[in-house]
Amino acid sequence: MNVLHLFSNAKFTGPAELALNLCVTLRSLGVGVDLAFPALPTGRAHTLLDTARARGIEPILDLRLSKHENPVVNWLDARALARFLDRSPYDLIHCHLDNDHRIALAATRVRGIPVVRSSYEGLGLSKPRRHRPLLRRTARLFQPSQRALRHDHETYGYPLGSMQVVSGAIDVARFDPAREVPDGRGKLGIPAGAFVIGIVARMQTHRRYEDFFSAMRLLTDAGVDAHAIVVGRGTNQESVGKVPARRIGLGDRVHFPGYVSGDDYVGVLGAFDTKVFLVPGSDGTCRAVREAMAMGKPAVVSERGMLPEIVADGVDGFVCDGSPEALYRALSALATDRPRRERMSRAARNKAVSTFSLEAQARAVLTGYEAVLEERRA
Hints:
By secondary structure, this protein is of the alpha/beta class. It has helices at residues 16-28, 47-54, 71-87, 98-107, 128-135, 146-156, 184-188, 209-221, 237-247, 262-271, 287-294, 307-310, 324-336, 338-355, 358-377; strands spanning 2-6, 32-36, 92-95, 115-118, 140-143, 163-165, 195-200, 226-231, 254-258, 274-277, 299-302, 317-320.
């Protein structure tokens, strides 16, 4: 089986790593996979290209694959892709974003190559005028959640039998609490016995940091030696994070390492006792929650998006309404009941290994591919 993956964005952001991980893992299962994404001008850093090559994938860079729709550019890309498909036949084309989906449908209109799509929107494809025409000729839709599946069936009439939920995947070997990584607590000067709460998200105004800081203040007022690590970049770091933390009297307890990568990032996750996640961002699959759970960290999450499908309330974390009082109750339960926290930690790790692994995701996608091809042969 040979599959061409299209990704119409040159930036290593949002679902880019998810798409790349899937391609690499499908190859390990014996699927012939190629990946196409846009080139960047010479001299500009191209993290996606460098990462793909480091993972053993030499991408196809001959298509423009712009992030946003442009009728002329898309027409040129569709013609170029059609010529490429005539020279290099594939069994399937797997799309990851809206514009590569458009281009693939145009290029395959008379060629009969099935087009499948991964969605990364946790609540379902959100723009009916844009998505309805794309779904009409899509052979299969891989969904990140049951909520997304129900939404797209009810909104677009997309057949339930042509959709399947495929859990977002992370590298559970990389995010393994038994692996030796840098000491995240030591680097930040956090006391060894402190209860550490972690947040991993871009510093944006809609992320509800003030609700979290209010909950943390309630926790420290109750006598818990709580510290927080806020990981993420953003132009609003001062106004969204540092100023509110100082205003509420937590300036020395909230640590802002900024953007952290590589094993340093894994080490920071290892410093957490729990992770808080309140508002999903551009990655609707909430990968940061899965990474923390793989490290054995119970997650305290809100009811927004697909978060309740990731965290089992009272089993591997807590699901709450996201208010300061509800956050405080969940965090207090973890901070003051160590045996319970340890049980939840084991449950979080076990779920990640069994459900969020790259191989589990790739095998589910491969099952979907086989179903599409079997339907075409019937």
